[in-house]
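User: Teach me something about this protein's shape.
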Amino acid sequence: MGLTVNGAAVSLPEDPRVSLLDLLRERQDLPGTKNGCNQGACGACTVLVDGERMLSCLALAVQFEGREITTIEGLGKPGALHPLQQAFIEHDGFQCGYCTPGQICSAVAMVQELRRGVPSQVTDDLAAEAIALDRDELRERMSGNLCRCGAYNGIVEAILATYAEAAE
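Assistant: First, the predicted structure itself:
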């Protein structure tokens, strides 16, 4: 058995020490997922595992047998970008672009967390059924994804523009 990456079946590596990041980048030729710190501190390697964000540098590929992995390449295609990918372009949400795939994958999962009512450190009402996506909530939830260029204002604007209904 293996795992699924962007809709395609992928065999697990024979070596159980291969990280999910290395499987994606080196063995599946999916360079969008970046190796930033290799310590789980920057978020550049963020991918979606069954729709939830995961730092692929800290995870072994064998841990994800039977699971669905989505990378930035699986979110959109040239000519048919994911709405958040398009918003990053329109709102200048990147400079060098190194952190952008992790930022986008993280934001896609973050909005799903909001919709499920998962609170964050700054959520005022922990019993609330709906959590509004305001700037403080967004910045807290995205704090695990670092941008060395400082494009945070564009990143926030892109996310808010894409997920305005979550901000209501």
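Now, about its shape. The domain at 2-75 is CATH 3.10.20.30 (Ubiquitin-like (UB roll)). Strands lie at 2-5, 8-11, 46-49, 52-55, 68-70. If you'd like, I can walk through any region in more detail.
User: That's plenty for now, thanks!
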